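Pasting as-is:
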Amino acid sequence: MTAGGNRGYGRALLKLSGEGLAGKDGRLDPTIVDALASDLKELLARGRQIAIVVGGGNYLRGAKLLGINRAVADQMGMLATAMNGLALQDTLEQKGIDTRVQSAVAIADFCEPFIRRRCLRHLEKQRVVILVAGTGNPFFSTDTAAALRACEIGADILLKATQVDGVYSADPKADKSAVRYEEIGYREVVERNLKVMDTAAVVLCEEKRIPICVFDLHVRGNMMRVLEGERIGTLIH
């Protein structure tokens, strides 16, 4: 539940891209993951509840593989998210963070199935829950999975961790005149085709009135500042 006013947010869904966690070799970068683990540990100590939806783009972006049926390619992408989720779980547990991996598809030998009530119970016990395999269906991105899970677990905010410091009017790497928004409405994101998240993800959050904060993953303490109620990055609401 929302902690209320300036006290920020109590339960958050964190969306991590595979690329954002990876080094040049495509594997999880220990420096990035260590910093993430330290931030998560502090959040848990302050009573926050965190679920994570992780992508798999560091291993492959399935739909772009030539000659492979889109549905099959997306299934391959789901497996890539599971690989990231298991690696992230092990790293977090080495840091003393109690963690569970739940999958939208059956991978019984490696992780739990996603069951909403079980997920909520883990969160209440101050466990980090890593949600993998997207929605379990092809043609849906992990952004949409993040919005769906945020709605299901009653998240107070969806944290979209990226490699830039917010939502811009254009790609800031390609357009030096691009302007960063401090806040923007759900409808504006869709109408301006800002591509920060899939339209389905934005619309889901709008329906449930779940704010989305887009921020730079690589600045230590950003997650804490957002959940404490500070204005970091771009707030979509």
